[in-house]
Write a structure and sequence with these properties.
heterodimer; A: Amidase signature (AS) enzymes; 11-stranded mixed sheet; 16 helices; B: 10-stranded mixed sheet; 3-stranded antiparallel sheet; 39% helix
Amino acid sequence: MFSFSTIKDYQAQLSEGTTSCVEAVQYYLQAIAAHQYLNAYLEVFEEEALQRAEALDSLRKGGASMGKLHGVVVALKDVICYKGHQVSAASKILEGFTSIYNATAVEKLLAEGAILIGRNNCDEFAMGSTNENSAFGAVKNGIDPSKVPGGSSGGSAVAVQAGLCMISLGSDTGGSVRQPADFCGIVGLKPTYGRISRYGLIAYASSFDQIGIFSQTVDDAALVLEVIAGADDFDSTVARQPVEMYSSQLDTSKKYKIAYFRQALEHPGLDTEMAASIQSYIKELQSKGYTVEAVDFDLLNYIVPAYYVLTTAEASSNLSRYDGIKYGYRAALSKEDDLTELYKQTRSEGFGKEVQRRILLGTFVLSAGYYDAYFTKAQQVRRKLVDTTHKIFSNYDAIIAPTVPSTAFKLGEKNNDPVEMFLADIYTVYANLVGIPGISVPLFKHSNGMPFGLQIMTSHFDEVSLLALSRQLMANH
Amino acid sequence: MNAADKYEAVIGLEVHAQLQTNSKLFCGDSIAFGAEPNTHVSPVTLGHPGTLPKTNKKAVEFAVKIGLACNCAIEEKNYFARKNYFYPDLPKGYQISQHTTPICKGGFVSIKTSEGEKDILLNRIHMEEDAGKSIHDVYDDFSCIDLNRAGTPLVEIVTEPCISSSEEAFQYITELRRLVRWIGICDGNMEEGSLRCDANISIRLKGEKKLGTKVEVKNLNSIRNVKKAIDYEINRMIELVENGGTITQQTRSFDAGNDTTFAIRDKEEANDYRYFADPDLTPFHLTPSYIQSIKEQLPALPQQRMLQLKKEFGLNEYDAEQLCDEKATAEFFIAVAQHTGNYKAIANWMLGPIRQHLNETHATFDHCSLQAKTLAALISIVDEGKVNFSVASSKLLPVLFTTNAHPLQLAEELNLLQVSDTGELENWVNTVITNMPDKVAEYKKGKKGLIGLFVGEVKKLSKGKADPKLVTELLQQKLS
């Protein structure tokens, strides 16, 4: 019977001949079929995945060298373009749309031998924290199906959580990888802004978006990151600096110098049991020889408003291309309707409520008369945050924080209060505002039975410390 | 006093020039004109989900070039902004443009009008991408969109409101078109839309400081139409105001069918474009050394060349002007001038028989098969009296265009060398005198103008080879 622990183990078994890519794919196809009620997949590339598995098996048996991700079964959040396959951003407005090119991350996965098994459900255009904003129904948490998996990459998180693939790619604009990883009890990595090309990632907010990785272990996340990161001629915002071999630099006993924000742990919105767990965990780390110190962070209450002003502004522009003219959904019009009516009806019918809310918000904050009060101000907050962050990392290797202020919500619990939902992003949006890498590692369990994670952040492009520290903490817990 | 004389016009022009790069401003698609619709369209041009722009460095270089050629200050810190609006031929729902930081600021273009020289001041030159084309007249029920043009790099060259007549506008665009062609950044073809002009026009009472309400006129697809539209619009506004009306801020379109303009929208319908820095593109920084290197690559500009042709080569205003109409023409002159000192003759040859030959063969100085050295040699043998000008231009030149043979050898081969052997000349002269006794008698009675006739007859007889100077002298001798 097939079972998966790490990519390294799996590839060792492939080399020894004790398993095959076909066996792995068959296993996952069965698991996906058995867990349809979780609604994690929008589409499964069944035939194709099996064919590719067969091809990889025969290549390997023929003596060909194995790519770094040879045979690794990967699922893609439905915002990542895969040539010849539908991509919908879980929105009705992209109904029936097929991508005519590969995202750079997909190209790189395929070049190293990965098998793409399907596309995962998510919040529409990656906007949401519960995965309830999908045009194709909510995703359910595999640990407790009455709970949400988090969002917006909920389907991708559940796909790894429930063993429906080995690795999945999500996207993280304000926590959309780390937050569902936290709710689902798995590893969720958001690299530095610009570490992975965004070419082929459907944009929500361009200066925040980053492809992220879900996995069971830090080792697997590190290996996938070193494959998909790096410069790209199709993305001018991607970093040019060389990609480190993360997976081979994880084994260290370095006692990192860690900071945490006093105001974050004392925040009234944080679940008291979670606060207590993290406080006692900090003591444990200190007793193990880590420096863990509180630093003051008086900008905490500005980060969620700044985040929502800036991301909705960018989103209002990024989503303008969905207009019913070139592709995707177009409203049925009567003869008398003019062009404006075509736009209005198409976008009113094609976009869901949350997406419409954010487009309107973003249009508002960029409009003449309000621009300076909102957009310009939020940019100032962002710059201030970057300065503050640089100062912190001149003294510390890492910052730790809760990932989310509570464990997974009940389905439907927060749907009526968008502001309350926004505020739950308080710990994750910071890393996106300043562009630093962040990860959620599954260290804790709440008395309500749900898991929760610890968020770790390091300075720009210090994924080595981020991953090495995460691995230490997971190994010693 | 004529009612119109109370007013003065204030005009500002916005010229869009398509940059003749190989590819679009933000992706590798070709920008060639006239391809089948929707064939130069990558996922980036189509605005497909997940696509990102990447700046074409050549386009930036071209923008810097035109800025330097127009005496602008070049901005070192630049970024692109998004101009948000919905239109079917705008695939992303926003145009990538520059907003508060145009790549070139200030500057001027010098023009000549009947009233003298004037510097037309520029406000800015900024870069942006072109939209696609909407085609409304093919089907009754729907419009067609061609996105080949979408993403073509443009510079928008914006003047200050400092133009005061349609003549100045005409001269300005003529000069600007010469300039963009001269430095090779745009083919300047207004019919194909490579160069497009919008005019902002207002009137005010002479002496008034405040600007009047302006009207923007679009769709001006030739320099003549810019002039016509401005004339029409100024008259329309004056008439309107004189009749007690008020000018409303409008966008109008020029109708080339009847040389009038008509309103297409009022100001109230103006968009709020919600500009913000495009987060998909990083700011781009131009270093002083980069700007300097572009400056050094710039060719001598038309007005510099004209000055050179006048000062260094002693040409008159007209010749210099004509030779500097295009860069290739001026350069050809300079090239020939390296081989002969008879500069006036070069000008005469180039503006006379050579230009005529090029026109007849649909060629240009850009691709002139006649070599500079050949022309110089041709001029020399005419100067030396070995061949006369008319034989040289009618018999030798057409052959030289294809062979670039040595003109003297060619003249020998074709037996076209001028005869200055007095014996042979005398024979011809005697024949003519014998054949025309009546005219000779008239001449002798004092009708000295007939000398030309005799010279002509000798030329005919000699098949053009007789040296006219010597023939004249000989005739005068014999008939005195």
